[in-house]
């Protein structure tokens, strides 16, 4: 993930990836050679990092025993430390993360105080902060060592702070010097506007969002009211901009901007996943009350893409969810008028840029470029085009016709031996399995208990399967089948 690149140095990142791998493997004993191969490291590198990792996890939890077995390798049978706890321990030693947390926690932060607490010089701090500084620059956010804070458009700053803290803590710690109870007035007033409030993890995310905004307000960083908000919030029965007018800790001149900010936070990500979400119908009604360019664009896009790409197969529920996400994020881009920090940026996911869906999105935005009613959105068309495609990607993948993997079994004809493997393969909806007769080129994979087939057909896609196979070998077989299936359909 890009997040680890921003926060951790090279050796720390290796140990984090190592522990992440160990916690995802089946609890068992493993050789150092096995781990080295998985991580693309030498034996000596792996051994060195393992010893340091072993020391760190025992330090993090006194109940955690050593995972190293003398002259044997590694055991994952006794791992009790969670990946979240280990990640947070590493981040507490990270200068970028510590800076962000310090900026939110301290009432009177200073550069000298931070450097003293972290035992670091100013030059070292500047060097270690460079990846994060460069990353934030794309959003016109800078790091101020005078105020010891992130500075920029306040919505973007708070969004950046949220992801920088959430991806590091995942709800396991409360990273502020005030209690959650101090947020009760914010939570009671605004929680019903957030889809996040419907789920276990979402509630923790919402607490952190509110905590960051509250922390910024305490340090006199207030969110201004943007005139672009008027498109949705002005004269709205749903969005009441006077909710914070009588809160004594917020200056009256800042109350409207802060109120709008909390509503705006609920619109900055594609939170809708289900039609039963009570926020969805209210959000759609709020946009539909007054005809506006964002509603017009969303409806026009869905009509076009449903006809051209989905052949009018999108269901009513799919269109409602897609429209809810499209309207929300389009409004966010309209207000900010450019890119802003969001989750996908931090996780570095590669997309297939050449699909019928992406080409359909490109064609739509090319057609509407000349329409004057969308003039105020033209600067963010590239952002919208990318976002819209991603919102519809799950529906596109669901409808895309994929060729099943053709698998043949060249095994002993004995049901006592073959039934478990046969049942396993038949339960995979992306596999078509049959008994091997002839013509190896007809199959994507031939599972055989003998290499005689390979001797006759050297290029046959053979996978050896022994008579005394262990159940865990089915896991490795599944991974291979998935890889072949994905590759086969990528080449279509």
Provide structural commentary.
The protein is an alpha/beta fold. Helices cover 55% and strands 6% of the residues. The protein has 22 helices and 9 strands. The strands form 3 sheets. Strands 7-6-8-9 form a 4-stranded parallel sheet. Strands 1-3-2 form a 3-stranded antiparallel sheet. It has a two-stranded antiparallel ribbon with strand order 4-5. Strand 4 (142-144) and strand 5 form a beta hairpin. Helix 16 (316-336) packs antiparallel against helix 19 (381-399) and helix 18 runs antiparallel to helix 19.
**Oligomeric composition of the shown chains:** single chain
- The number of strands is 9
Anisotropy-based shape: globular
Broad structural category: alpha/beta
In terms of DSSP E residues, the strand content is 5-15%
Strand order of the largest sheet: 7-6-8-9
Distance between the termini: 29 Å
Radius of gyration: 27 Å
In helices, the fraction of residues equals 55-70%
Low-confidence stretches: none
Mean pLDDT: 92
Q: Outline the biggest β-sheet.
A: 4 strands, parallel
Number of helices: 22
């Amino acid at each position: 993930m890009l997040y680890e690149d921003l926060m951790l140095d090279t050796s720390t990142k290796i140990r984090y990836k190592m522990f992440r791998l160990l916690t995802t493997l089946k609890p068992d004993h493993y050789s150092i050679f096995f781990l080295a191969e998985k991580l693309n490291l030498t034996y000596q590198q792996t051994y060195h990092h393992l010893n340091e990792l072993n020391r760190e996890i025992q330090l993090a939890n006194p109940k955690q025993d050593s995972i190293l077995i003398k002259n044997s390798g590694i055991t994952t049978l006794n791992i009790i430390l969670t990946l979240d706890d280990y990640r947070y321990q590493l981040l507490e030693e990270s200068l970028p993360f510590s800076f962000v947390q310090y900026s939110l926690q301290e009432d009177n932060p200073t550069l000298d105080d931070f450097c003293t607490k972290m035992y670091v010089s100013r030059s070292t701090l500047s060097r270690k902060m460079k990846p994060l500084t460069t990353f934030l620059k794309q959003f016109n956010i800078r790091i101020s060592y005078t105020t010891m804070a992130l500075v920029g458009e306040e919505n973007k700053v708070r969004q950046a702070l949220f992801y920088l803290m959430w991806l590091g803590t995942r709800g396991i710690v409360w990273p502020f010097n005030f209690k959650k109870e101090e947020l009760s007035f914010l939570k009671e007033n605004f929680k019903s506007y957030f889809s996040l409030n419907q789920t276990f993890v979402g509630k923790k995310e919402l607490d952190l969002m509110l905590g960051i905004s509250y922390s910024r307000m305490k340090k006199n960083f207030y969110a201004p009211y943007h005139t672009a908000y008027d498109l949705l919030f002005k004269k709205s029965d749903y969005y009441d901009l006077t909710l914070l007018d009588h809160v004594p800790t917020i200056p009256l001149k800042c109350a409207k901007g802060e109120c709008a900010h909390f509503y705006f936070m609920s619109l900055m990500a594609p939170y809708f996943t289900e039609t039963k979400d009570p926020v969805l119908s209210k959000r759609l009604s709020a946009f539909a009350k007054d005809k506006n360019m964002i509603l017009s664009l969303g409806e026009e896009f869905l009509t076009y893409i449903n006809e051209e790409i989905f052949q009018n197969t999108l269901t009513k529920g799919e269109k409602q969810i897609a429209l809810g996400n499209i309207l929300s994020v389009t409004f966010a881009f309209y207000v900010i008028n450019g890119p802003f920090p969001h989750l996908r940026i931090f996780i570095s996911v590669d997309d297939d840029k050449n699909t019928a869906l992406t080409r359909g999105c490109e064609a739509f935005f090319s057609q509407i470029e000349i329409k004057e009613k969308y003039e105020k959105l033209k600067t963010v068309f590239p952002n919208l085009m990318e976002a819209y495609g991603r919102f519809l990607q799950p529906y596109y993948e669901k409808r895309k016709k994929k060729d099943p993997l053709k698998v043949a079994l060249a095994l002993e004809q004995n049901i006592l031996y073959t039934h478990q493997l046969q049942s396993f393969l038949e339960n995979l909806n992306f596999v078509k399995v049959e008994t091997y007769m002839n013509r190896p080129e007809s199959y994507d994979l031939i599972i055989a208990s003998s290499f005689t087939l390979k001797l006759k057909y050297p290029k046959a896609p053979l996978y050896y399967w022994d008579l005394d196979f262990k159940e865990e070998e089915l896991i490795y077989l599944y991974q291979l089948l998935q890889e072949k299936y994905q590759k086969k359909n990528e080449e279509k």
